[in-house]
Amino acid sequence: MASCTGSGTGAEPRGVTSPLAWLLPLPPDPSTVVLRDDVGPIGWQVLLRERALEHVWGDLAVRADRPPGPVERARALASQVPARAVVGRSAAAWVHTGLTPPTTLDLLVEPGHRRLAPDPSRRTRECPLPRVDLDDLGGVRVTSVQRTGLDLARWGAPTDPTLLIELDALADLGFDPRKALDALTHLTGQRGLRAAREVLARLVAP
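RESULT FIELD:
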């Protein structure tokens, strides 16, 4: 992605009204995200401080007049997600809802695949990943809204007040807790089922 060098021409990227707009790259697509390397470390800090950019996660931001969506949030994680891995659980919930940015990434891999190298910035789990449970967002694989809600119900703490908030937000995006309850009947003998039933029952209660 080419970046401007402040030639003094006065040209500003579309949609940016900050007097510091000359620091921003000129993308061919107005929805293109901005990376730290596009503007350099000093320009990055200045543009964030002046609120010309909205930080998404890591080294990725978007223009302040274009709030990030799931694709931008997924792209922000891309450098930490190997091709064989899938973003899941609380990290996937953030990608879909934008509520709670992850401090540690939850990455999922199919059983039998080569395990990911140890990294303190991520937790890796092995579990089946049917294609129907996966979304491709900006070239990053993420568990679907439905699978993400089911996984949160299974592995989240039932007493955590943020769990229901995240599940409610996922419900606004299409998560169906009744369908998730039905899915539990096919997971007999696996872990997390009791907690999931408890949480999901609270969501479907009248």
